[in-house]
Structure formats: structure tokens, C-alpha cells
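INTERNAL AUDIT FORM
Audit reference: QA-55
Scope: verify that the stored structure record matches its stored sequence.
Auditor: D.O.
Record contents follow.
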Amino acid sequence: MKLRKGGVCALVLAVALAGCDSGTATREVTRTSPTGTVLALPETAGASAVIPGFLIQSSAKVGDEAAVSRPGFPTAGWTPVASRSTVFAGLLAAGRYPDPFYSTTMKSVNTADFKVPWWYRADLSVGGETGLRTIVDLTGVVSQADVWVDGTRVATKDQVAGQYTRHELDITGLVHAGLNSIAVKVYPNDPNRQLTSGWIDWTQTPPDRNMGIVRDVVVRRTGAVAVHSAHVVTGLAVPALDHADLTAKVDVRNQTAAPAQATVRATLAGTTLSRSVSLAAHETKTVALTPVGVADPSVWWPAGMGAQPLYALDVSVDVAGAVSDLAKESFGIRDVKAPLNSGGARAYSINGRPLLIRGAGWSPDLFLRWDARYVEDKVRYVRDLGLNTIRLEGHVEADEFFTLTDRLGILTLPGWECCDKWEGDVNGDEPGERWSEADFAVAQKSMAAEAERLRDHPSVISFLIGSDFPPSARIEKGYVDALRTADWPTPVVAAASDASSPITGSSGLKMTGPYDWVPPAYWYAKREGGATGFNSETSAGPDIPTLDTLRRMMSPAELDTLWRNFDAPQYHRSPSQTFGTLAIFDNALAGRYGAPTSLEDYVRKAQLAQYEAVRAQFEAYGRNFRDASDPSTGLVYWMLNSGWTSLHWQLFDYYLDQGGAYYGAKKANEPLHVQYSYDDRSVVVVNSRHGSATGLTVETALYAMDGTQKYLRSVPGLTVPGDGGRTVALTVPSVGGLSGTYLARLVLKDGSGREIGRNVYWLSTKDDVIDWANNDWYYVPTSSYADLGGLSGMPRATLSATTTSAAGTDGTTTTSVTLRNTGGSVALMVDAHVLGANGAPVLPVRWSDNDVSLWPGESATLTATYRTADLAGAVPSVRLSGWNVATTVVGR
């Protein structure tokens, strides 16, 4: 996959025409001029157009501010950028810098270039029609901006402040028939001083700190009366789900100095509604249309629980018999509840069914470049991983993101971020300046804009108004007032940490860590980050990518240091001193598996360590979900992905390659899953499906490292209740003849004896000893490690493999590889990668299963699906590797 560049704008682009909230039709409405892109404004009331791109330049190279926004201003030497682009992203796309994802290249960028404002400029063409008003709809400015139109400043940086505020600028009196110009002077970003977003300890900070315009700038055309804030308030009968009441609400605004009479019309769930309204000059009224009752509604469910149907609301406002403005919204019918359980933990349910939140933390691209296909690939990985939720701490994505999560059935938990200005009033001596009076207004406007934008998305199930700290009483009131005014339909949570605030009360969440390596048994203890309650961010820390990705992101010298020097600072981990090295992870790796002998040995051991750690984390929370006391209710893995090439906090890497962490999570989150418990040695079947599973058999076997079977027991006739229910099949006894390292194989069979699940563990007769007395916020030390060194003595396994590939009609290809263990040794953790042009991995890819283990004589067929175009014309082949399997390529 090529380095993501976010799509540099061409000089002739299609512009979406739409109602004020979403677009359905396109036509070519741009042309070029000596000064860059010209957007021809639509000449229909209720239509809108996105400015398709800008020309940017440093303010250090611009003199007369007013002149920048006048037609004909000379722009030689200015850089064309996309409709959404930070300054650095635009310059990077224009080839001004080498690959910032490789080695320490980004260090060489001169950050002084971004200490001054930058100009964004575009031209607008207005036709000869009269009577339409022209509105610039501006949001996503990082951090502040002055806005100029045709030589007149229409807004200052004190007005356009904050990444999430929305600004509707009426420029009707300034634009004229013919060519017009708009210029936006964007000021530098400092998330410790402005209510924007930053990167905390996730990754290195971009050279420009993401200054720029990161959402579409929309130009709307309306008549005298405009439509705003169209949405639907839904009421679903729970648990019957046989009836829903829908109420359409819309704000209508008279944009003129004269009184107006308007008619609001709406189509909702097949019913047409209308209402007349009288408006004084410049008056806004909220119109609620007669509720619509829907029998047997199509209910929206998360993926794995049901379908994701959506409804539409279409609104028009007429003045004097002519359309003055239009709006269109989609929404889903569903019911979300999240009360506190008896232990004080927040327990979510959807449509009356209990829901274990299995989530992970989202990271956008480091330079906030929007690539719709890339984002969809990542969200589809969420489904493939068996997760149901994405948490967005800050970096609340564009509209398309939530449209995508609606469609794919992935729940979202957006909220404000920690460790900067957002919590500057409440976080003590942590980063972030205290708030000024102006900041309180910006925060409330940010909340109002995001609430209006997100409320109709069924995938949004809460808003976290605090992260590490809850807001103060005054700040919370501003947030809650904005949410209530917007008819916010889902629970509002005070913080991601264990905290309370005066209005919303206890968060019901905990933020106890860990954030660095801990042994698998950690997750089973009902303390700190263990599997009890709702943990809003936690993981066993680092994630070492595959060799393919490591060689793309680090120099040979850096790779040599990676495996040789555990205490070396790692630029691709974190700027934080706490997470600056891999020492905790590396020492555990060497202590448990043996010191690495090469880069390749280091990476293969890391994949095993990451697989077992991530699997245990999700398995523990899954097992404890239906506990009678102190159940687990939610888990957000920290993090899902990285916006940069990283060694830190990710289930898959920037290039979408998958390693042990990915497949450990995928295994643990199977809908019907057999697992081993590190705390009490029980073998448990967990059923996340709605219906009960009956007639199951669990077979448990233990093996010494020489392959000798030391224990075997089969337990038939098991029934497992649905909705996260569990059944204990057996408890593994103490078994003689095992010393040091051994293997456990769990097999799940259906009523006909067919294998429907398998799970393989590498275990030790010597336990990891956790030093609970010295627990810290980011990890707990391990005073003595388990002995997994016996894995290094496993005999080499022999596999035979055949592959087949078939191209589908939907632009995808399916490749299947059938593996058979033809030798006398267990083949442990066999990994398959589809290769395309130049022998590079084909990514993204979704495997039916991977990192599998086969006993002598066993076989398995793994199936991969990917885009045919990503083969780049090559014939697909499959590279096989494993813990004790020689690397081979088959199928070419």
C-alpha cells in the first residue's frame, strides 16, 4: 500500500450539491483561473457545494491581508491542497518533504515554518440570479481563523475559535455576480492553549501541530428562510420492539429584516407532515412536527446482533409557494441504556439486550488526512476483530466516519480528550492552560455543534464530556445544557476515569491501566485493570509490527538497536518518558521466552507474546461479563491503531498489516468461544450470540514439548446461554509429567461432532509472579517470569500447502490455502500472508483464521479476501511462516 497522501485536489473537481446537511447529486461546477480553483455556486435554493480545494501560503510571505481575498490576487508559488488539509499535509502531498513515516525523517522538518499563520484561498463564481442568500458553513479550523471575502473581514479569530465550533457566515451582501474570493487566515495550533486536539503520548507530534482546515467548507444557497438542526426524536418500545414514535424537529430562521410566513414540510417514515410558521425579522423558531407512530419498526443493531436499517427525514421550507431551503437526515431506531450496576459500573444495553462493550481506541492519520477507503478498511477490521465499539478520545471524525459506523454496525464513544486545554481547569499540574471566559463559550459551542451533528447517528451511544478528569460544575453545565438543547438521546458520561460530576453523576468507568506489558494472568484478577467493571482504556502496551512493516519504517541501524538494546529510546514509540523505551516489554520477552538472538527471533517472540497478552485481556473480560458479583461490563483496548508507523498501542499497524495482537483479539472475540482461564485453570465456553448453544462438546488436551500427550478429557452435552452467557466445561487438574513449558489444545465441537472452534495455549508450570504491592498507574511489575523457554526447543514441523485463488465480480479476490501437518511435530502459530507485486503483502486483507496451530496429521483451510487491484497485476502467492515452521512461499 502506498503512503497515504489524502488526495491532493485537482483543479477541476466534482462538487456535491445537497440539502444543507447531506449531498445526493453531483455535477461539474468548478473551473480554473490564474488564481487557482473556482467554485461555481449552485443557483438553487436549498443546494450547497463544498469548496473542493484551496491554495495555501505562509503569512510571512503575504503583505496586504485584505488583498488576499480579492479576485485576481496573484498566487504564484502558492500550494494547492485538498478541501480538508492541514498545512503540513498539503505541503507533504506537494512533495516538499521526504517520507515522515520512515526513521527519524520528521525530525528534520523546520517547525519554525508553522509558528506563523497560513492563508487558505479559493475563488467563488456567482451567477446572475437574484434572491438567493449565500452562507459559508465553516467548521474544523485548527485552531483559529480570520475569514475574508472580497476584501472584507467577515469574522475574526476570536469568533472562529476551536476545532469543533460551527460558524455560519452570511456573505450575501458581499458577493456579486461573477468572480469572488474567500481567504481564511489560519493561526497556529497549540492544544495546551486552544480547544482543539493533540496527540498526548500516542505518537510524535506533527511539525505543524495539525494547523489547518480539517473539515469541508460548505457554501449554501437559501431563500429568505433557512432550515437548521433537522433531526428526529425516537421512542422505541422496549423490550417488545413492536412500536416506535418518531418526532421530527427543525429550526427555521428568517434571514431577512422583514417578517416572513413559511411552511415547513417533512417526509418521515412514509408520512408527510406540514406546519405553517410566522417569523419576525431575523427570528428563529423550533418547529416540532406531529409524532409519527411506526408499527414493527426496522430496528438498528450493532454488528453481530442484527441488521443496520436506516430511515430518512426529508425537510423543505417554502416561502410564497417556492422552496427556500432543504434538509435531509438519516437516522436509526434503537434504544440505548447505560445505568450503573450494583457495583457502580456502567452497564450498557441496546434494544433491551445486555451488551459487553468490546472496544478499542481510534487514532486518525497523524496529519489528519481523510481517505475514505482507508478509514473504511480500518472500520472493517474492527468487525473482523469481533469488536463492537470504537472510542474517539478527541479527534472526533468527520460526518462520513459516523455514516460508515452506522452502516457497518460499529458503536462509537466520542468525547473530549485529556492532557491539554480541554481539561486545563481541572487537571492540576498536567498540561493544559486554565480557561479564560472566552474558553467557556467556545467549549459550549463545540458541544452544541457536535451534539447536533452526532445525535441522529445510531452508532453513537454516549458522549464522554471528560476523559482523565470530569469537568467542573460550570463546564459541565455548559456541556449538559448544549446536549439537552440538542435532544441528545443517549447517556452522557462524566469522564472516562472513575470520577463523578454534579449533574451527570458517577462515570461508572475506570481508567486504571495498564498501558505497558503485564502477564496474561493479570487480567483475571478483579483489581486495577482486571476484568471487572468498565475499563475505558487499557492494554499490555507495545505492539511490535511484522518484519515487513518494520523494514518500511526503520533504518537497518535502528532495527539492529531494536532487538539488541532494550533501554534505547524508540522514536517510533512515544515522546513520553514513561513510554520512551521498550524495556518493560523486552525484559519480559527475554525473561519468559529467552533472549532474542536476531531481529527475526525478536519479532517472532514478540508476536507470540502479543498474541497471548491480547487474547487473555479480551477473554477475561468476556468470561466475567455475566458474573453475579463485580461483572465486567466494558473494555476499550488502548489502542485500535496508530496514525503513524509505530511500536506502540495498536492491534494492527499503519499499513494495515496484522500480527499476533490482531489474531489474539480475533480469536478471543469469536461469537462462540472456548477458552482457558489463567486464574483457576477452568475451561469455559462463552456465547456472545443471542440464542443458546446446545449439544456442544469440549475436548481438552495437554502436551509436553516432545509432543507427548499428558492429559485428555472430553466433556459432551454442554449448553451455553446466549447474550454473553458462559458454561464451565471442566477445570484442568494438576498433571504429572509436565515440566517447564507445555501446550494446551482446546477443541469445541457441535452436536454432530464437527469441530467449530479451537484455541491453543503455551503455558508453564512456573507462574508469572505479579508484584501487586508496587502497582503503578501504567503497569504492575512482574517479580518472576513464567518459563516459556521450552518453546525454543520444539522440533521443526513440516507442512504441505496448496493454494487456489478466484476473482469475484465485486472487485475482490479470494485466496485459500490448505495446510496439512505432514511431520511428527506440532506446527505452532502458522502465519499466512498473501503476496502481490514485488513479493509485498497484499493489504488490507481479511482472513477466516490465521496464526493457527496444527498437530501431526491435522489440516486446515484458511481463506483470505482482498481487493483484486491491490495485487497490482501480480499472480497471488502465499507466504507461510511460524514459530517452528520454515518460511516458504507457495502458489507462484
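Auditor finding: record pair retrieved intact. The first strand starts at residue 14 and ends at 18.
Action required: none
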